[in-house]
């Protein structure tokens, strides 16, 4: 499918970042530099399949108006990265932008760390010419995805890894000059541990990232990777670095408790961090497809037909909660995308007398409160047979996102996904964009899910009760406009 045709696909997003066509995955190199927010990303400029990784590039002065830039980094034929310029991050220092990335080569099992420097605001890069960290530490079976940050007068780096003893790990390096790096050991390592929905933290961690908060706490973010099945889910650990800077025990020097899901949906992976000039931690992640692929990253006839795959989440603000959780909110700048208000309703609904609230666009910002037993149904076909359900379960208080009927195309993946209870009344913000829903709770939890409506006609919002008792609700809905 040509680029103009791909962009006319009814599932193609209007406000989520992605190029007009072809494959996209991990966000990379998130940095504020030279007056702009820069969002690089894993990109195949030649097809909608996971291969031939380059770094694509968007930039913005305000997180609202985005400019698609030329490809920033490409594999060098015959070079250390001839198999692909894989994931990493970037730092701004002394007027230049330095990108750190995983150099993939078909002759190596691991991905060494290397770098490239930009002197023109992040548009073009000059590669270092040799590997920064050519070998993986002894005892590793996976090694990739550097994350570099400033700490005092020096620099630190985490690299995602799998250890021979079956643990996932974030390994630490330090440097005084961004060019010479010393291995310090394990920052955090844990065996597979269960998280909700039957998933676990797996044997390998990709895209390990670290956020240090003003209260002295921190959070390690990672993407759980299974050696057989590949990408699974995004996870995090909240805690503190142990005093003294020494590495105490085989679990590393980051002291933490149990892991937690970063996003409770099925289609969120590879979160990456940006420390904004105003002190906020911003986060983007990869939203993958949920079409007919056998597993994440596998070939898909439907995706080949569409000519594009993947998008980035909208930017999220990340703050520490009082109970060790991470609180996620849509970046405050996104309020500027709201256009016409389509719905402003408050009332009571019942199973016998559902309430139709009216039409919404395919890119919509909803704020919703649901009493236990209330269901919001997004109808996407005129006859009502295609719909996405968001339910505040009466018995458990869980919030359910049910996409089993969200596409009349039988190739689309279904499933029911849960958010933990919020109380008797749940308040949600739901950002819809053609084929994706990003859902945020008042407590700061998030759930991201793809769905693929094929019904003709406008989308409509209907409120229902799931049991014999009526249920109250409030709903507001605004059009969202890409700029």
From TrEMBL:
Keyword annotations of the record: Glycosidase, Hydrolase
Pfam families assigned to the protein according to its UniProt record, in alphabetical order: Glyco_hydro_32C (PF08244), Glyco_hydro_32N (PF00251)
SUPFAM superfamilies per the UniProt record, alphabetical: Arabinanase/levansucrase/invertase, Concanavalin A-like lectins/glucanases
Molecular function terms, GO-annotated: beta-fructofuranosidase activity
Domain Glycosyl hydrolase family 32 C-terminal: 361-462
GO biological process: carbohydrate metabolic process
E.C. number(s) listed in UniProt: 3.2.1.26
Domain Glycosyl hydrolase family 32 N-terminal: 16-330
Enzyme class: hydrolase
InterPro entries for this protein: ConA-like_dom_sf (IPR013320), GH32_Enzymes (IPR051214), Glyco_hydro_32 (IPR001362), Glyco_hydro_32_AS (IPR018053), Glyco_hydro_32_C (IPR013189), Glyco_hydro_32_N (IPR013148), Glyco_hydro_beta-prop_sf (IPR023296)
Family: Belongs to the glycosyl hydrolase 32 family.
Protein name: beta-fructofuranosidase
Organism: Streptomyces cupreus
């Amino acid at each position: 499918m040509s680029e103009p045709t791909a962009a006319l696909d009814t599932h193609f997003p209007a406000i989520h970042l992605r190029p007009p066509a072809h494959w996209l995955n991990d966000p990379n190199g998130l940095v504020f530099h030279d007056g702009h927010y820069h969002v690089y990303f894993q990109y195949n400029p030649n097809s909608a399949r996971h291969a031939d990784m380059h770094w694509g590039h968007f930039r913005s002065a305000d997180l609202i108006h985005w400019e698609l830039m030329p490809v920033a980094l490409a594999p060098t034929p015959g070079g250390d990265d001839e198999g692909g310029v894989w994931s990493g991050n970037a730092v701004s220092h002394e007027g230049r932008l330095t990108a750190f990335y995983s150099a993939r080569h078909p002759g190596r099992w691991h991905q060494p760390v290397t770098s490239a420097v930009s002197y023109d605001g992040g548009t073009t890069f000059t590669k270092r010419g040799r590997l920064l960290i050519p070998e993986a530490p002894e005892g590793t079976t996976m090694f990739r995805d550097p994350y570099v940050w400033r700490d005092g007068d020096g620099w630190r780096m985490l690299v995602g890894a799998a250890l021979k003893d079956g643990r996932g790990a974030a390994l630490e390096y330090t440097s005084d000059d961004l060019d010479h790096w010393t291995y310090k050991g394990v920052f955090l390592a844990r065996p597979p541990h269960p998280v909700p929905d039957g998933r676990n933290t797996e044997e390998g961690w990709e895209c390990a990232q670290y956020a240090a908060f003003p209260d002295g706490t921190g959070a390690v973010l990672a993407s759980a990777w299974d050696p057989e099945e590949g990408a699974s889910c995004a996870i995090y650990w909240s805690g503190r670095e142990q005093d003294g800077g020494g590495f105490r025990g085989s679990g590393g020097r980051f002291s933490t408790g149990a892991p937690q899901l970063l996003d409770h949906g099925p289609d969120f992976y590879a979160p990456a961090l940006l420390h904004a000039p105003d002190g906020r931690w911003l986060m983007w992640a990869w939203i993958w497809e949920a079409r007919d692929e056998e597993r994440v990253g596998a070939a898909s006839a439907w995706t080949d037909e569409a000519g594009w795959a993947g998008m980035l989440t909208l930017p999220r603000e990340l703050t520490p909660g009082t109970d060790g959780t991470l609180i996620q909110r849509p970046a405050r700048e996104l309020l500027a995308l709201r256009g016409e208000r389509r719905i402003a309703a408050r009332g009571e609904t019942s199973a016998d007398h559902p309430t139709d609230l009216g039409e919404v666009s395919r890119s919509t910002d909803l704020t919703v409160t649901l009493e236990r037993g209330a269901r919001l149904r997004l109808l996407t076909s005129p006859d009502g047979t295609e719909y996405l359900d968001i339910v505040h379960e009466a018995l458990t208080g869980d919030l359910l996102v049910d996409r089993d009927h969200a596409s009349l195309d039988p190739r689309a993946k279904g499933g029911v996904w849960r958010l933990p209870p919020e109380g008797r009344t749940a308040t949600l913000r739901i950002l819809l964009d053609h084929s994706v829903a990003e859902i945020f709770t008042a407590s700061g939890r998030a759930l991201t899910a793809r769905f693929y409506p094929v019904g003709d006609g406008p989308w409509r919002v209907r409120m229902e009760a799931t049991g014999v008792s009526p249920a109250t609700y409030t709903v507001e809905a605004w059009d969202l406009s890409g700029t």
